[in-house]
Amino acid sequence: MLKKKNNQKIWLMVALIVIYRIILDLSYYYVIAPNFYYDGFEFEFSFAKYLDSYVLLLLLFAITPKEINRTSDLILVILFTLIGVPMLAYYSLSDQSRLYAYLMFLEIVLVIYVGKMGLLKIKITRSQSNVDNSYKVSIFFTLLSLIFLMGTIGFSRLNFDLLKIYEFRKENSQEIAVGFMPYIISWATKVFNLFLIVYSVINRKKVQTIIFIGVQLLFFGFLAHKTVLFYPLIILFVYLFMKWKHRYIAYLLGLILCSGIPLLVSLVADDIILVNIITRRVFFVPAFLNFNYFEFFSNNEYIYLSNSLLSPIVDYPYEITNTAHLIGNYLGRPDLGANTGFLGTSFMHFGYLGVIIFPLVIGTLIRLADTFSRFTPVWFTSGLILLPFINLFMSADLPVTLLTHGLLIGFILLKLIDNPVTFGSRRLN
């Protein structure tokens, strides 16, 4: 009886994934290709590749976790659904290179395999510290960042108007470009202050919770980045999400709504704004850029991490120093910052070798997330490091994710509380 129920659940999940994929296909055919063909979103249907893409889709589903019980489960499901499915849709509907699609498919398979099974047996000794150390470290860097922003940008350029953020962003970013501070500020907004918000909520310290939420609002006002506002909401979403019983099915239904409503609005009301903002930018732009990264670096020199970690010993081979602008220039838009995730940047750095190396490293990091979070609830671990992984999948290089987007700092905080301790007055797990 139990086996029959499990089979029914799996077939339901397959049906939902296929529905989600069909919605993406229809969105591309009816809205994206006709309205954004000038940006490279052309419709060139290949029946063979279309069938091919659905076979690859089902293969990816077969190896992806069927339950979301661990941090790694959630991260791998997001990789499959937000990156793998749209990539296969774009590949078949715009007649992209089969070689590039297969290489990206291989990368996703490697990440899923290593993230689930592990490449090596990793044993980490238990920390002798406790959560108070994480709290003190987070307080220090959050206050340091806030004081620095007050001193450099000042309250005269503090802005909370979402419609005016682009008027302040560039100049404010230039003001804080002092030494190592941009990294510290980025960590404070994405990791440290979020940790403090969670700490306060778990301990039911209402005044502290309000204060740290206010600090996050100040970070938004100084930095003029909308995403700073959404970081606490991600933790809240993960917290509520992990309380649901059938999480994977609920997640797939959410994807169907997020992709289906924009398509419906476009077809009924003849308004493409939701398809542009959600379906095109979230689902198809990363796929589009990944294929262009493969195309460009198949015919030009690789980077070999010369734009980051290996810059002291490896010469950067291009006049345009920013690789995102390098690809933007290749696309005919020199001012475009064409950032993409690891699928494209792995090939950018090391070619075919990078397609193997980067997924192995990323899968190991995903595996580490479970190892570090043995004594913390899944929602807490996921909320702390999920956003850096999403950035890594969609728009950031691996070194940038580790340093700028706070993945390394998130792991350090998890290590500091890798101990069955009480989180203030309430046990963390």
| Contiguous helical run count | 17
Global outline: globular
The main β sheet shows up as:
2 strands, antiparallel
Low-confidence runs of at least 5 consecutive residues = 420-429
Q: Please provide the count of β strands.
A: 2
Secondary-structure element string = HHHHHHHHHHHHHHHHHEE
Strand order of the largest sheet: 1-2
Q: Briefly note the structural class of the backbone.
A: mainly alpha
- Our measurement of the CA-to-CA distance between the termini, rounded to an integer number of angstroms, reads 33 Å
Task: Provide the gyration radius in Å.
Answer: 22 Å
Strand content: under 5%
Estimate the helix proportion, in percent: over 70%
Chain-averaged pLDDT: 88
Describe this structure in words.
About 70% of the residues lie in helices and about 0% in strands. Strand 1 (about 420-425) and strand 2 (about 425) form a beta hairpin. A two-stranded antiparallel ribbon has the order 1-2. The chain has about 425 residues and is mainly α.
